[in-house]
Amino acid sequence: MPQTPCRWRLPAGGQSARWPESDLQGSHVLGGAQVPCQHQLAEQAQEFVEYVRSKRGTGLVYYEGNTYTPNEKLREGQLSRDWKCSMYHKAKCRARLVTRNTRSGEVIHVTSRFHTHPSMYDQQQKSEARDREARKLKK
């Protein structure tokens, strides 16, 4: 096991907690339930980055039905990049992720999953269906 602190979310209050790993082994018991550490979750399946282009030509990351815009300009030699949800301004969305270059490819690490809006991909499908219906009605 790595010698870094383990992190997890407490079930009540949404506060983060840290314990030195030397004091804990394997899964940790928190409020009666076993909770896996971040390092245990990281050892499970890694998700690779899927890039898409916006209508304006900007490179976006597509992940679980939402797109993410770069939070900063890409610098030479940079191994990771921060991204924010594309609905950051419109819906005040706070969802974030980080992409990292690894030996096996670019991997996604989600830092905040909390979207303030429905999935963008579902919205797009619904709006395209509405547009098709509107075109049919005009004919």
UniProtKB/TrEMBL annotation:
Show the GO MF annotations.
Answer: zinc ion binding
Keyword Zinc-finger in annotation? yes
Q: Which InterPro entries match?
A: Znf_FLYWCH
Q: Which UniProt keywords apply?
A: Metal-binding, Zinc, Zinc-finger
Using the UniProt annotation, give all residue ranges assigned to the region (Disordered): 117-139
- Pfam families annotated for this entry? FLYWCH
The Basic and acidic residues compositionally biased stretches are 125-139
**Locate the FLYWCH-type domain: which residues?**
51-117
Q: Per its record, how is this protein called by name?
A: FLYWCH-type domain-containing protein
The beginning of the lineage is:
Eukaryota, Metazoa, Ecdysozoa, Arthropoda, Hexapoda
